[in-house]
Design a protein that fits this description.
This protein is α/β, with parallel strands linked by helices. Helices cover 41% and strands 19% of the residues. Strand 4, helix 5 and strand 5 form a beta-alpha-beta unit. Bound molecules: pyridoxal-5'-phosphate (PLP).
Length: 227
């Protein structure tokens, strides 16, 4: 084995050893070459996260078919059809318009697409996602019910980009609270609203403490990204 393979396998093993049972690890492989993904694959990793449509599709074409691809980046509506049928989970649904379009394109393709709704709780203004109030209003209005070809599996969020653990915890706790409220509401399809994706390399232990069922880890596995 080459150095890269050994290093990636070791870093993966380290995260896994600290992760409670039942919490899924998604290896965020954006900007990484296929060799790096194959190193993780060789170490048993099957869930990968990509954030750009073209890069994702290129990797999808050449990598093993048992990989579960999570799309985690902002998805432009004109690119939706390129990823339909190729994802295991679209984590970054950040508007009702995008949700409707994924449903429509999935119906055309004869597939059902699993998605998460991205919630914006971080302090940064640039992050995409439903605001908490907006999310609750849509929930009340029944916007998340009755989609024929989309299954809403839960929520995805990022915390504020800060070293202040209290701020990070507050953000994750807010999302976890929304997640529980939605689960209880009767206004999401009861079967399968079970995924709370939060936590990245720098903050995942706090996310897990606050109830994350899935974490998205890039640099802690692959090292620096190759932009
Ligand atoms: C890049 C990215 C990650 C991974 O970030 P790291 O800090 O490298 O672990 C997780 N989630 C999303 C949405 C990302 O864009």
């Amino acid at each position: 084995m080459q150095n890269l393979d050994v290093e990636i396998a070791m870093r993966l093993q380290e995260v896994r050893s600290l992760l409670p049972e039942g919490v899924e690890l998604v290896a965020v492989s954006k900007f990484q070459p296929v060799e790096a993904l194959m190193a993780a694959y060789g170490a048993g990793q099957r869930a990968f996260g990509e954030s750009r449509v073209q890069e994702f599709v290129e990797k999808y074409e050449v990598l093993p078919k048992d990989i579960r691809w999570h799309f985690i980046g902002h998805l432009q509506t004109n690119k939706v059809r390129h990823i339909i049928g190729k994802t295991s989970l679209v984590e970054s649904v950040d508007s009702l318009r995008l949700l409707a379009l994924i449903n429509e394109e999935s119906a055309k393709a004869g597939v059902t697409t699993d998605v998460l709704l991205q919630v914006h709780v971080a302090a940064e203004e640039t992050k995409f996602g439903f605001g908490p109030d907006e999310l609750m209003q849509s929930l009340e209005a029944g916007d998340f019910l009755g989609l024929s070809n989309v299954r809403i599996r839960g929520l995805m969020a990022m915390a504020t980009n800060t070293d202040d653990a209290a701020v990070i915890r507050r953000d994750f706790a807010a999302v976890a609270s929304l997640f529980r409220e939605m689960s209880r509401s009767g206004k999401v399809d009861a079967v399968g609203f079970d995924t709370l994706s939060m936590g990245m390399s720098a903050d995942w232990p706090i996310a897990v403490e606050e109830g994350a069922t899935s974490i998205r880890i890039g640099s802690a596995i692959f090292g620096e990204r190759h932009y």
